[in-house]
Amino acid sequence: MPIHDNDRHAVVLEIGRAYTKCGFVGENEPRVIIPSKLEGTKKREGIYLHEYSTKKELHSNLVKFLHHIFFKYLLVNHRERRIVIVESLLCPTEFREVLANVLYVHFEVPSVLFVPSHLVTLYTLGISTALVIDIGHEETTMIPVCEGTPLIHAWQAQPLGNKAIQERLESLLLLRAKVQGNGGQKIDLVDVMPKLSRAVLEDIVVRTCFVTTLPRARQLVAARTHEDGPSPPVPPPTILYPLSGNNNLTLDGSVREESAEVLFETDNEMVSLASMVLDAILASPIDFRVPLAENLVIIGGGCMLPGLKFRLLAEIKDLQQHPKYSSRIALKALKVHRPPAKSNYTAWLGGAILGATEAIATRSYAREVYMQTNRVPDWNNLADNTKEVDSRAG
Ligand SMILES: Nc1ncnc2c1ncn2[C@@H]1O[C@H](COP(=O)(O)OP(=O)(O)OP(=O)(O)O)[C@@H](O)[C@H]1O
Ligand SMILES: [Mg+2]
C-alpha cells in the first residue's frame, strides 16, 4: 500500500480510560472524541471499556466499540486502512493483546503501528528530550524521554487524575451541599441523592472547579488544622448548579476550590504531583536532570483545569527546599512547553504526525506476521527491540 495514499489515510486511535480520540494521520485534530464506553440505554449507563472482568468480555466490547468508530464516526473500510494506536507505555498487556486480536482477526486490518503516547507527544514539538507528564482520568503518569528514548525505569504513576478530584468533590458535596427546590427550601444533598453519577461529577469539575494558588492552599490548611489558627480566606462565590427536575445544587465556593487539592496533598509518603516530578528527574541520568526540568510537557485532559500548571510549578519549586530533595537536586529553572494542540489530544496529534511519515510503512506490524506469531511486540521487552524484529515490519 502506498504511504501517502490520500484516499486511504491511516486511522489514528487513542483509547483512554475516559475518552477515545479518533481521526486520520496528517490531520491536526481528531475527527471525534467520544467516551471510551459502549453506548448505554435509557435505563442503564454504558459500560466503560477498561472496566471488564474477563478477556472475553473485553473482546466483545472492543468489537462493538470499534465497529461504531469505523462505521458511525469515521466511515471507513477497516480492511483497507492501516491503524496507528497511541498507547501508554504502562498499558496493561492484556488490553493491548485483546485489542490487537480484535483489529487483526476480527476487523482484518492490514497493519497496526503501536506508538507510545509519552514519546510521540514530543513529535508535536520537534524536541527529543522532555519530561512528559500525562494527567489523565484515572492516573497521572510521567516518563522522562532522553534523546528520543523513554526511560522506563524512571516512570512515575499515581492515581492522581480527574477521577480523584471527582471523588473528593463527591465526598465534600455529600458533607456540605444543599439542594434548593422551587419553593426555596433547602435540603441536605445526602437526603436527596446518596450518590452522584459520574457524568454529573465530571460536569461539575470541568465547569466549576479550579486549582487555587499555593499561598491560599496553605491558608486553607492552616485554618482547617489549627482550631485557634488564622481565619480561612474569603471563599469564591457560591453558584447554583441545575440538578434533575427543579432542584438546584448550591455549590459552595470552598468546595469548588478544595476539590483539586487532592492532587497536591502530601501524605505520609509525600506523594503528590510535585514529588512525582522530582522523583522522575532524580531517577534520570545526572546529565539529563537540568534539560528535563527545562523541558516539561504537560498533557492529558486533567491539566486543563484552570490554575493547575501554575500551581504545579509553584509546588515543585517549594518542594525542592524540602530536606528530602534539597541536598540531591538543584534545578535553576522549570520551563513548560506549549504544544500546538489542546492538552487532551496532544498525544493523539503526535501519533497523527508519526503516522504521516515513512514509519507507517517501515514500523507497522503487518497482519500476516501477526497471524503467524499471534503476538505483537512489546515496548518493554528487549527481545522485541532488536534488528531481527524490525525486519519483520509490514
Ligand atoms: N477542559 C477541561 N477542563 C478540566 N478537565 C477536563 C477538560 N477536558 C477534559 N477534562 C477531564 O480530563 C480527564 C481526562 O481526560 P483525558 O482525555 O486525558 O482522559 P483519558 O486519556 O481517557 O484518561 P487516561 O489517560 O487516564 O486513560 C477527564 O476526566 C475529563 O473530564
Ligand atoms: Mg490519556
From TrEMBL:
Any coiled-coil regions, as ranges: none
SUPFAM superfamilies: Actin-like ATPase domain
Superkingdom of origin: Eukaryota
Gene3D superfamilies: 3.30.420.40, Actin, Chain A, domain 4
InterPro entries, per database record: Actin, ATPase_NBD
Protein family membership: Belongs to the actin family.
UniProt protein name: Actin-related protein 10
Organism of this sequence: Daphnia sinensis
